[in-house]
Amino acid sequence: MGKDNSCIFWRLPLWIGFFLIIVLSLLFSPYTSLAGEWTNYTNANEVSGSYIEGNYLWVASRGGVVRWNLSDSTYTKFNTKDGLADNQMKDVYADDEGNKWFGTVEGVQKFDSVTWTTYNTDNSPLPDNTVFAIIQDTLSNFWFGTGYGIACFDGMDWQVYTDLGGGATNVAVRGIGVDSQNRIWTANNPDDYGESGGVSVFDGSTWTRHDPNTSSIGQYFLSLTVDGNDDVWAGSWTAGVYRYDESGWQNYTSSNCDLMGDQIECFDVEEDSIIWIGNHSWSTGGVSRFDGTNWTNYNTDNSEIGEKDIYSISIDGDNKYFGTSTKGVSKYNGSSWSSYRTSNEPHCNWITSIDTDNMGNIYFGTSFYGIAIFDGDIWSSYYTGNSGLGDDFINCVYLDDGDTLWVGTQYDGLYKYDGISWTNFDEGNSGLLGNIILSIAKDSQSNLWLGTAGWDGPMGQDGALAKFDGTNWTNYYLQNSGIIDDDGLNVAVDNGDTIWIGTEEGVSKFDQFGNDWTDYTTADGLADNFVTRIAIDTNNTKWFATRWGGVSKFDGSGWINYDESDGIADNDVRDIAVDGEKIWIATENGVSVFESDNWTTYRQVDGLADNDVTSVCVDNTGYKWFGTAKCGISMYDDNEVCVSESISQLRYNLLVYPNPFREKTVISYQLSVISKNQKPITGYQLPITLSIYDLSGRLIRTITPYASRITPYEVTWDGTDETRERVKTGVYFIKLQTESGRTIGTGKMIFIK
């Protein structure tokens, strides 16, 4: 009998059988190699500067840069992932050669539409990395107002001036103007109260300063411009507008004229002599127009301007563009108003806390604007204006096992949202001793544990640990318990329902069943007594983030401490999260992960939205979420791409059929299901990028269809690449990404010729 050279199971030639075994094992293996991606989510409506370049409006914001096409109101957004040195922008300027210049808190950048060039204190004579203002003089030299003086750059050489005359040696230059004689005027804001500031002028050789000692102006200035008549207009911190001509200074305030507010953030000039003034004020604000005789004011009460806090003005003929603090840009054409606002992004960049529900929706507490929610596709929010939330200053958010949302606020106590109604607990209607809720945790008995403050207790006591069983309240404080301190209470519950409380003077462990207290300080091995956050890992080991000493690990018997010398980003650790066997920390100078006894650090240069990180959370699909102090949110996917039911089949309903295939296959998917805490958005369609890769990770084909929450969406792939050539037989990977770049679904398929 002859030798059988076929695979018995398939009755195919042996090499084909082996090939199918390999590709099928790859197909049904849950992992691929596409991983390690950063995605940043920022709000670009917090405007700090603007500049008109032809048909484009460039907007600087705390969430990066936006280029608006004024002809069709479309926009392109740039952030650190695209090349910006920092998302926190201060100013933007376009030169005559078409280069864009951006003032950031990490230096000044030049963008020629292809290449980004950064100038900072490390690679240039720039005196400070915070660049508030940019302008060109009549000789085309660039002037950069920084946090410590001013720099002049002619494209090759630098001149730096930190003494702006009359002892103004420690000032931030917040505004710059150039007159017809090429004199440089600066608005000076001293670093410390009482130091010299005022307004300085440079004639090419000498700096002369105007201040209260030499003229009738103040010390603290935020903005400056020069009109067509060479009059200088300087905006002060609290004393309105100062105008200078050859006869001297004149002051305009809200008390001696119709100027709307006295904190002046910006100017622009219309037709050489009409001055537009942007005000910033909690009570009164908006835009004032002054033609030399009459004042006209525009605010939220008498116009459709987006907001009363104005940080930039750009004028293009009859069209005026006003940058606001949170509502993007408002346009006024002399008769009607319109707006330019970026969309589908977090509504606030100032993140304080993060948590996730069982559906994978992410909740972000913000420092002054309520809660931002992201379901993987669409951003929404809760704040005092659209929900039962009574305080927009959020200290912490917590989702319990039933997906009930608990919110700790700065002024109004605790809020509970069950998906239908909001309930408030405060000093007046509950057992809370203080209305400041710093932290929230829940034990296995459904008891809620809160770190609180704001209590005017005996002997000046401010904080208390509160327990709420759904009906009754119990408070533990210095006089009735063994808690080590009453300041900065952050609470965690371990696997045995023992309560751990971090304070500014150490850690307390509370055995609630034995009513037993144990305290730990640096004397016991804790790295620093100021404990900012506590996390419990899968082995019930406790991890403590500290204010000055890095991280401490406690297994119940011994302590191990980690600081900068061990590889963590910074010793000021704000938050800590468990990711399986990994530990992630958020610091004031980046984030670090602990894995296999080693620390790895990521910073802005790696893709993080900002180095000043306040919070970290790991969601149920393994994505890492980082909230920054002022510059939005980052998501990091360091997983191998996992085609698991929790990610692709349940959340995104990703199906490929037939699979394997010869002629064509259908890729079907649907956007995520909403949780009980979210309002349904019906009929919404989101652009989705569907990318197909080969085994080496090479991009084969990109398709950009739309997806709906209502019905599945189908895409047919015929086994061809971008040139419509048939690909080789093999395994191919699918990746679905949202418009912002987040990977939301993955899959595998086999193509056989």
- Tally the beta strands: 66
Distance between the termini: 33 Å
The overall pLDDT, averaged over residues, is 89
Estimate what percentage of residues fall within beta strands. Answer: over 45%
Secondary structure class reads mainly beta
Helical proportion, percent range: under 10%
Radius of gyration: 30 Å
Shape: globular
Low-confidence stretches: 1-12, 30-35, 641-651, 679-684
Q: Biggest sheet, open or closed, and with what strands and sense?
A: 5 strands, antiparallel
Work out the helix count.
Answer: 2
SSE topology sketch:
Elements: E1 6-7, E2 12-13, H1 14-28, E3 37-41, E4 47-53, E5 56-61, E6 64-69, E7 74-78, E8 89-94, E9 100-104, E10 107-111, E11 116-119, E12 131-136, E13 142-146, E14 149-153, E15 158-161, E16 171-178, E17 184-190, E18 199-202, E19 207-210, E20 221-226, E21 232-236, E22 241-245, E23 248-252, E24 264-270, E25 274-279, E26 287-290, E27 295-298, E28 310-316, E29 319-324, E30 329-332, E31 337-340, E32 351-356, E33 362-366, E34 371-374, E35 379-382, E36 394-399, E37 405-409, E38 414-417, E39 422-425, E40 436-442, E41 448-453, E42 464-468, E43 473-476, E44 490-493, E45 499-503, E46 506-511, E47 516-520, E48 531-536, E49 542-546, E50 551-554, E51 559-562, E52 573-579, E53 582-587, E54 590-595, E55 598-602, E56 613-618, E57 624-628, E58 633-637, H2 645-649, E59 655-657, E60 665-669, E61 685-693, E62 699-703, E63 706-708, E64 713-717, E65 730-738, E66 743-751
Antiparallel strand pairs: 1-2, 3-58, 4-5, 5-6, 6-7, 8-9, 9-10, 10-11, 12-13, 13-14, 14-15, 16-17, 17-18, 18-19, 20-21, 21-22, 22-23, 24-25, 25-26, 26-27, 28-29, 29-30, 30-31, 32-33, 33-34, 34-35, 36-37, 37-38, 38-39, 40-41, 41-42, 42-43, 44-45, 45-46, 46-47, 48-49, 49-50, 50-51, 52-53, 53-54, ...
